[in-house]
Amino acid sequence: MKKSEAPHINKGISPMSALMLFFTKMFHLLVEHTNLYYQQHLDGQAGPRPRLPDITLPSMMTFIDLPLQMGHELRETLRDYWSRFTQLHIPFYGETTTRDGFLHILRFLYFAENSHRPDESEEYDRIRKL
User: Fold this and answer.
1) pTM to 2 decimals?
2) Per-domain residue ranges for the chain?
3) What are phi and psi of 43, to 5 degrees?
4) What's the rounded Cα separation, in Å, for the pair 74 and 80?
5) Distance of CA 55 to the CA centre of its chain
6) Helices (H), 1-130
7) Cα(38)–Cα(52) distance, rounded to whole angstroms?
8) Is 120 strand, coil or helix?
């Protein structure tokens, strides 16, 4: 690597900081497209609907982190991670984010804008949005 290619990366940078340099743009795109997809959903609904707050960068980062943690504590359903039943209760999830906030992002998580559809003559590639 030439010095001019990445002047902000040096021997003193932590692995997490280096990783975030790469993923920060991806998180910003996820936030942008997820909020846009939610707005398109609201625009397609009949009548006025209450609008939930926009998804923020910190909430998206938390959303991406939680499934990693969930892999260590398997439950029957997603809702069980926020359960208040004594036998299922794990305070971490409720202290990190709300169940409804997590499910909202999950429902509207979007990677690409809908307005950029392929030409009808092109073969449809289901993975193109990733």
Assistant:
1) 0.75
2) 15-45+54-108
3) -65, -30
4) 9
5) 9
6) 15-43, 57-70, 91-96, 99-108
7) 9
8) coil
Q: Hey, what are 65's tokens?
A: 């982190």
As given in the structure block, the two tokens for residue 129 are 């949005």
113-121 own/partner pairs: CB under 8 Å, 24+ apart: 113/33, 113/36, 114/37, 114/40
**pLDDT at 119 > cutoff 70:** no
What pLDDT, on a 0 to 100 scale, did the predictor assign at position 19? Answer: 72
Secondary structure class of 110 (helix, strand, coil): coil
Any residues with CB less than 8 A from the CB of 114 and at least 6 apart, and which?
Answer: 37, 40
Which candidate, 117, 114, 130, 118, places its Cα nearest to that of 35? 114
Beta carbons within 8 Å of 107's beta carbon, 6+ residues apart: none
What residues contact residue 28 under an 8 Å CB cut-off, 6+ apart? 57
**Mean pLDDT (whole number) for 46-73:** 90
